[in-house]
């Protein structure tokens, strides 16, 4: 055996032994690893079979031995590239389904069967013989059609795995890049060597790929032991990161977008990988046509803000990312609170609005009118309360029914709302009674406005079963000038007394309560 052949055998055996060591080590510690270790072990096993088969073939002295060890090689060699691709896919977070396994391993199975039965059809090798010049164990081969198909397939598998790894480099955080680097180099070297073999620049009669697999094995072993490749991987991060319901955006220390999760992609459909590395202000403007509502360089601690974006409402939680006591970026978490906000609005509406007329209820009136009265007192301005009800409302219910009575209440509320500005507080006080608060109005202005509403109500009868039901109403008006300390309850009491004065005077009229607490007839 010449020294060159001995060197070849040594390199191949090194690859085989390293693969065996990794396989034993991984199986021994399999309980400490995630499920991805299973694919890794299958990939290592087929690679080891390939290397051992080729190492023994280099010791062959006859064509029969060469052919036997060649078949042994093909029990591993066609399988380890697609298994490597599946390992990389699972490592990067792609789901490995049964259909994908079958699809990727069908070709290797066909290749193995065609190789084993080659003597009957010569689809794989047209000629397989001992090298006419170099002799055993060097082989002289003329390849068949299926060999080209097989080589294209395994080259595509290795290239696809490499490209997938390279595509994730930019978005992979630094803690995982050592793992990614080991996998990239582990894929790149066999591809380059296989390419050199395909173009015919490697030593004649020699397959150099098993001789370089040892380098990939060393990288994998280093990554398993030093960076815990099989126990802590980017996929672990991505599984958690992308399963979150909240949208997450990660910015670096120069406020460039470096990562986002699937929930964020769902919130902002135009967000894609092309935006990675771009200034976040530009990305946000591209997504929303608006400037980001927070000045990022002013954030020194956690910040909570609420933003409205289209039909959605988000709560933003922004916090600094710390690394070695230095600011290393920002974490922005988007929580969709649209449904919660809608529910809060609904509950607030139910708490402060009358179900029938959809105007403020008694509770809302007291809360808002007291605030308005305090403001009027502070400004020393007048404040008017108007209390009115529908005349003979009980008779309407008795004559036409409660449904018509409800329609009349809604009708009156709509008439009044149409005549009011936003500065007037209008509410259903109870039953057929309504109340208004008019900040800044004088007593005369309040009386005039009450008369105007009374006139509007009278001029717009309710249509019931093609009949017109005339509506009249009685009003009581009270006022405070701001110089006297009076409460809403006191003003309502005065307006109520004025209202009853209007009723006693014959209804369908307005009465005011003067400063001497006497009725003005």
Structural commentary:
The chain has 521 residues and is an alpha+beta fold. It has helices at 3-28, 36-57, 63-73, 80-91, 98-116, 118-121, 145-167, 174-198, 209-226, 234-243, 262-267, 280-288, 338-352, 362-378, 393-400, 402-418, 443-459, 488-504; strands at 125-130, 139-143, 247-251, 257-260, 303-309, 312-323, 326-336, 383-390, 425-430, 433-439, 462-464, 467-469, 473-480, 510-513, 519-520. The longest helix has 26 residues, at 3-28. 53% of the residues lie in helices and 17% in strands. It contains 18 helices and 15 strands.
Provide a compact summary of the structure.
The chain is an alpha+beta fold. The chain is 53% helix and 17% strand. The strands form four sheets. Strands 9-10-8-13-14-15 form a six-stranded mixed sheet. A five-stranded antiparallel sheet has the order 4-3-7-6-5, with helices on both faces. Strands 1-2 form a two-stranded antiparallel ribbon.
> Span from first to last CA?
132 Å
Strand order of the largest sheet: 9-10-8-13-14-15
Residue share in helix:
40-55%
* Quaternary structure classification: single chain
Mean pLDDT reading: 87
Into which percentage range does the β-strand content fall? 15-25%
| General shape | rod-shaped
Number of strands: 15
Radius of gyration computed on alpha carbons: 42 Å
Any low-confidence stretches, pLDDT <50, length ≥5?
516-521
The structure class reads alpha+beta
Question: What is the overall number of helices?
Answer: 18
Largest sheet: 6 strands, mixed
Keywords:
PAS-like_dom_sf; 6-stranded mixed sheet; 18 helices; membrane; Diguanylate cyclase; 521 residues; Rev_trsase/Diguanyl_cyclase; single chain; disordered C terminus; alpha+beta; transmembrane
